[in-house]
Amino acid sequence: MGIRINLDTMMARRGIGLTELADKVGITPANMSILKNNHARAVRFSTLDAICRVLECQPGDILEYTEEE
Fold first, then answer.
1. What pLDDT shows up at residue 21?
2. In this predicted structure, what is the pLDDT of residue 67?
3. Contact yes or no for 64/4 (Cβ under 8 A)
4. Which of these, 38, 35, 39, lies nearest to 18 by C-alpha position?
5. pTM of the prediction?
6. What backbone phi and psi angles, to 5 degrees, belong to 49?
7. Cβ of 22: how many Cβ atoms within 10 Å?
8. Exposed, middle or buried by CB within 10 Å (0-12, 13-18, 19+), for 26?
9. Is 38 left (phi over 0), alpha (psi -120 to 50) or beta?
10. Distance (Å, rounded) from C-alpha 42 to C-alpha 45?
């Protein structure tokens, strides 16, 4: 996949756990885990907006484009 989700990095920088972030964003911990572990095939803009609001970051801090091998 060409897009990587670096959510775990931002969570570590902000000192927030998966369950706490999921609660503040309003999605299930299972869905947050899918995002965190880079297994998501899509992310809603509303979810990305909420994550950025809670983590006080920009979408580019979380999403990264990489060349496919």
1. 98
2. 86
3. yes
4. 35
5. 0.90
6. -60, -45
7. 20
8. exposed
9. left
10. 10
Measured from the Cβ of residue 66, the count of other Cβ atoms closer than 10 Å reads 9
Q: What share of the chain is helix, strand, coil (3-state, %, to 5)?
A: 55, 10, 35
Kindly list the distances between the CA atom of residue 21 and the CA atoms of 10, 55, 60, in Å, as whole numbers in the listed order: 11, 8, 18
Tokens for 23?
């609660």
CATH ID of 3-56, from 3.40.50.1820, 1.10.260.40, 3.30.450.20, 1.10.10.10: 1.10.260.40
